[in-house]
Amino acid sequence: MNDLNILELFRRLHRAAFLFTPDFRIVGANAVAEKWMAECAESAASTHLLTLFPEFIGAEEDIRQVLEGNRPALRLEFVNRECKSGEIRYLHLTVLPVPAENSGLLVLEDVTWHGERIRALKQQEYEQRLYKELMHTRRKFITDGILGNSPAIEAVRQMVRKLQTAPQTTVLLQGESGTGKNLVARVIHYSSMPPDAPFLEINCAALPENLLESELFGYEKGAFTHASTTRVGLLEEANGGTIFLDEIGELSLPLQAKLLSVLETKRFRRLGSNKEIKTNARFIVATNRDLKEAVAQRQFREDLYYRLNVVVIPMPPLRELGDDILVLARHFLKIYNLELKKNVKGFTPAAEAALKEYHWPGNVRELANCIERAMIFAEKDLLDRPDLILEPPLRVTSRERWEVPPEGIDLEAVEKQLIQSALERAGGNKTRAARLLGLTRDTLRYRLQKYNL
Question: What is the pTM of this model?
């Protein structure tokens, strides 16, 4: 098999493949590899393997051992690479010998979804270990975990305290993105559950519908293509603890119906099974959407809304918290002093005034990023207003009136372009794209099939 056939073989397997000489000069690449270079390579014009993949620097002798037949392959797993779009991709890099050509073959396997899942699980494991180490101060955690002294924050804290005696009650956290819903969910869990009770979370907007369903419910071997083993779902793993469903407003209508059944019966079935499994998990859900409005637009089931609407905790936006903005800013200052090994003592009066005046569209998450950025470049004892780099509010301009040109238009072509634009703006998330277009998810799915998108 010649080098062109090898490259074509991996193209058909949807794998990027590069052919290179013993001196690491790239002499061939298939179409998948060329597409990857255009999207993610820092030096797309380079023909040197170590320039395109600096991860192999220091492993030159190992690569030569592969090419000489002294070892079968060299593999680097879960290498992360930031593409030009800002997306992080995870790759398996495998070097194979091509003896007939006296050369080597580098094969790229995109395992981004798997890598993200592993990263999220490791993060959850780390956070759970951290909280378990602090279980002897659990009651104090309620006060210290939710920072602030404003009436709005105190109201949140009081509701969390009352939930200590109701460990099975469903809780709905409602507020803008970045207001700390994830933190409050964890405080509720760790202040009302046993120390060894599991806390599992999933973002309903982060996965396609079929993957989300299998993650939640699990599946039996043979339930669908590639289901080679039985897998336990999050509902089963969270038994006796808490399952946190973030972005619940993005759940598709069919999955909403299944979730309603679980909430009412405390039973579910794995995909591909007729056996009912009982769960004693407590549900905490969160959304930045107005679920009442979603119900009115028939994007969210009314019966599920009322089933979730048991205890609702409104999460106040940062711009409404007054002096609490400074409390949080000083908290992040302490964190980044430790992380960056600095000794910044605080803020100037001008900086404090700027922090309180700013509108904070990204809420606490934006504040944390703002302080981190300022601390990285800080050279004085106090952070000043220019150090914060606060962006001015975006100006929303009125939409121009659309007019049909004299020569007419191709309406289907325009609709197709609008759908493509919405998908790009939503980062490929069909639920968000449908919302941008004012369509239901099912209507968008029909149009995607119609235009073969």
Answer: 0.58
